[in-house]
Amino acid sequence: MDWDVFLTPYKQAVDELKIKLRGYREQYEMASQHSPIEFVTGRVKPIPSILDKARRKSIPLNQLDTQMQDLAGVRVMCQFVDDIKIVINLIKSRTDFDIVEVRDYIADKKDSGYRSYHLVVSYPVMTIAGEQRILVEIQIRTLAMNFWATIEHSLNYKYEGQIPKDVKDRLQRAAEAAFRLDEEMSQIRGEIQEAQQHFILKKLDQ
Ligand code: 0O2
Fold first, then answer.
1. pTM given for the model
2. For the chain, which has fewer Cβ within 10 Å, the N-terminal or C-terminal residue?
3. What residues have CB less than 8 Å from 102, skipping those under 6 apart?
4. What is the pLDDT of residue 80?
């Protein structure tokens, strides 16, 4: 298997989607509006991780393109939980790719404590041989969700998937704290917006 050849369109898809999604942030900035997108990252899964996941999930290497949906991954970070819905709607309204699957781990968090909204999209990459459809997993999450997931991911790596019970318990508590942080921030934001509205109405009265 020539990995470079196989993964080249995946890299192209990640690069293009990063530019497209970052473009929204620029537009909100230009309009002096709050951007629901804080920042965007992306990666092509490293070959050792692909081989590892293929082994774990019994995916034949010749079926990676259809069976492994996150070979190409793009992550969108938001400040507030409400921003996630806005980003989902922006993505759903696009006409340059199709959504093929949705996994809502925010409404339905994983046992690990993981929260994030996943959209799998079929993205057309224009190759010299014509259009090639590439599956890309777009993960949308708040900064707090991302903080938790990043730490949990590195612990999983460190303990090779066998996180000790006491660390797991701590991670559960940390996940709850991250959830509460998101709630507190949403409330603070709501109060700020209310105060701003009040201020605008008062000015109009004058
Ligand atoms: P990496 O290193 O992030 O590239 P599965 O892999 O079985 O959990 P599936 O069906 O492949 O699930 O897709 P799903 O549920 O969309 O999850 C794939 C990706 O979501 C993972 O990629 C992680 O990025 C993220 N994710 C899912 N569950 C967890 C979790 O419990 N903790 C953290 N930190 N991230 C999670 P990979 O393949 O793990 O690899």
1. 0.93
2. C
3. 117, 118, 119, 120
4. 96
